[in-house]
């Protein structure tokens, strides 16, 4: 795999290209197959475990603060939110979740920042103290290294 900067015909600006050693990778199947990412496109922000949980499931304080009902528009018609607050309340009680799916949230680890050993132990203790009892944890499509 080779990384290089390219100017792609028919477009403006620079692109980061990854030229695949295996031609079956990428969109094109020719011997010089490559994938491209526009450099001006903002990258998704990486998050730690607790942030990913808040993004996906909210927190009990979020649910208590947001007790308003919002109108949803489906097919040009306004539909009232009914029961969503109950679902949000159940999801925000993390210790009751049987299945936790944090797939595709750019999760990089226990924290979004590299931590010294003492801070890492503190972060692990915080997650352990949540009392999670899930039976299934989906961490696929994330940025975990080890």
Description:
A hairpin with a 2-residue loop joins β5 and β6. The chain has helices at 49-57, 60-65, 84-92, 117-128; strands at residues 2-6, 15-19, 34-38, 47-48, 71-74, 77-80, 99-101, 107-109, 136-138. The protein has 146 residues and is α/β, with parallel strands linked by helices. It is flat.
* Principal-axis shape: flat
**Largest β-sheet summary:** 3 strands, antiparallel
Distance between the termini: 21 Å
Q: How many strands in all?
A: 9
Low-pLDDT stretches are: none
**What's the number of helices?**
4
Helix fraction by DSSP (H/I, runs of at least 4): 10-25%
Question: Could you give a short description of this structure?
Answer:
With 146 residues, this protein is of the alpha/beta class. Helices cover 25% and strands 23% of the residues.
Task: Write out key terms for the chains shown.
146 residues; alpha/beta; three-stranded antiparallel sheet; two-stranded parallel sheet; 23% strand
SSE order and pairing:
Blueprint lengths: L1 E5 L8 E5 L14 E5 L8 E2 H9 L2 H6 L5 E4 L2 E4 L3 H9 L6 E3 L5 E3 L7 H12 L7 E3 L8
Parallel strand pairs: 4-8, 7-9
Antiparallel strand pairs: 1-2, 2-3, 5-6
């Amino acid at each position: 795999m080779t990384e290089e900067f390219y100017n792609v015909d028919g477009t403006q600006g620079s692109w980061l290209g990854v030229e695949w050693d295996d031609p079956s990778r990428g969109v094109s199947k020719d011997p010089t197959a490559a994938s491209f990412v526009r450099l001006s496109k903002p990258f998704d922000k990486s998050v730690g475990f607790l942030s990913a949980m808040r993004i996906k499931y909210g927190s009990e304080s979020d649910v208590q603060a947001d007790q308003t009902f919002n109108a949803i528009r489906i097919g040009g018609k306004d539909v009232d939110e009914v029961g969503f607050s109950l679902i949000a309340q159940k999801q925000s009680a993390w210790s009751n979740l049987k299945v936790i799916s944090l797939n595709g949230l750019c999760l990089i680890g226990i924290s979004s920042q590299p931590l010294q050993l003492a801070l890492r132990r503190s972060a692990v203790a915080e997650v352990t103290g949540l009392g999670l009892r899930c039976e299934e944890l989906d961490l696929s499509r994330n940025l975990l290294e080890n």
